[in-house]
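Help! Submission page says 'invalid entity' but I think these are all valid:
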Amino acid sequence: MNKQITFSVVLGVALLSACASLEAKPPTCTQPVGKWKNRQKSVLEIKTYDTATGAISGEYTSHSGASASSMSYPVAGWINSVPAESNAPGKAGRGDHAEVITFAVNWGTLGGISAWTGMCAVNSQSSGREQISALWHTTRPDTGFEWDHTLTGSDRFDPIE
Amino acid sequence: MNEQITFRAVLGVALLSGCVAIEAKPPTCIQPLGKWNDEVKSVIEIKTYDTATGAISGEYISRSGAGSWPMVGWINSAPAESNTPGKAGKVNHADVFTLMVRWGDRGSITAWTGTCGVNLQSGLAQISTLWHTTRPNTGFEWDHTLTGSEVFVPTE
């Protein structure tokens, strides 16, 4: 009986350490679970990634605009991670490969939705580190006119250490 | 006992008719469950809508019917914060949708974002969207993402 308790404790500590070490690693394009921040210091936290279906879910905490607060909003989306195409003889090689990602945030009582679509790859121009580059559309339910519901722009997200 | 069976049978038929009636109605901005066509007659079927969270799910079915891919998204039509004095009133309201599809082995993903409103000519709902599609393998670093616009209407 005592032995069993000891074993449970040891297992518990081992699991805890395993979790802690997972927690500490910054996310990557192929292991995206974790926190990513954009230039405005808004944080995308991917909490689940189902590699079988590609489904992702998590939370978004905004640090700019009307949504700036410590409040988080739910995220749903997809990642599609297929191998790079090999350069078959006689076929024009596809020179550039990336993991692709889409995710959307429901802004709850603020009204509106944002969807980001883009890719995750090493940013060869600056950091040399993995980065999510995405274009976004935000659509708002209540605006002054019929033609100004949708805003667009671009974002880059870096892994948080 | 017999009475109970009869009652159940009647209830069953009544529920069935109810479902058929719901099925037959074209989807609307407020009750979006059902099938929507895009301009090339592919189908987005919204199968679930959780009004508490705004989450929707379903599938995208290609025009030929040869393939279908899972879809998730959100609907959020919360009214804007009340107009504070001295602030210009917000006069135009729309129901807001986003739909995301993962194209399986093709390797790409697409997100449509836009508004749902009534087309004054047809009297039917339509979802007017802008989309981005990102592809994993392309010739260059700058040609992964495509964009365009698309209108979804209830399937006839």
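Support: the input was valid. A stray whitespace character was the problem, and the output above is from the cleaned input. The first helix of chain A runs from residue 2 to 24.
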